[in-house]
Design a protein that fits this description.
This protein is α/β, with parallel strands linked by helices and 249 residues long. The chain has helices at residues 32-41, 59-62, 66-71, 147-153, 167-172, 177-184, 192-202, 222-235; strands at residues 2-7, 14-19, 22-26, 49-53, 75-78, 93-96, 102-103, 108-114, 123-129, 135-139, 158-162, 208-213, 244-248. A hairpin with a 2-residue loop joins strand 2 and strand 3 (22-26).
Length: 249
Amino acid sequence: MKVNILASGSSGNCIALTSGKSTILVDAGIAKTKIEKRLLDVGIVPTNVVAIFITHAHKDHTKGLPLANKYNIPVYAGEEEWKDIQSVEAHLINKIGIGGIFGAPEHFIVVPFEVHHDAYRPLGYTVTNHKTDFKVSICLDTGKVEQPMLNVMKNSNAYILESNHEPRMVEASSYPNSVKARVLSDIGHLSNKQTATALSKLIQGKGEQIYLTHLSSNNNLPALAEMTTKRALYQKGFIENKHYTLEVI
């Protein structure tokens, strides 16, 4: 399965997963025209997008959903998240619960799982190519990672996780105290250390691909996020490019 992260961060999030000629998107948080251009830039024709899965209804994950209307693409999101999504034509709306397994068109099996964020019912997803068993876990906005989440994500070939912030940088920032409290809460975002801890429980040293995403532009540094995860995995005996690969987006 081909992984292309088209956008990542507070300005917008969009991930493309491709098998054969079929692509699904997880989130569509940048403008429709930007999604179209970035798809073409990585060799994906927008008409080959067969489904869009939304993690939650915040604008940095849904801004580009008019793409679905243009290309008649079905959109999947947690049932309650549709309260805040008004940009999708009714016949394209699909409401999903927690923990069910269902097949998107073509090659994909998608499993939604519950995460912890200040939205109605935010989701993470695992996406598996049913022909090759290649599995990708996607866990973006969440304030904590609990064992049920790890259970769903385990045995993946690729992990796309947020590594949002360094808590000391948040505390020293000019953010209002209410925003600091939100970011650092159990329904906020993952710190570098939280992400590293989760990955140290998931990585088995079998060549897994790690993508660190959704970094805060104000309260993190790519090198810091990378170093924190690499150190945690080194303590487990895993070495980058020998036991796993890592990319900071």
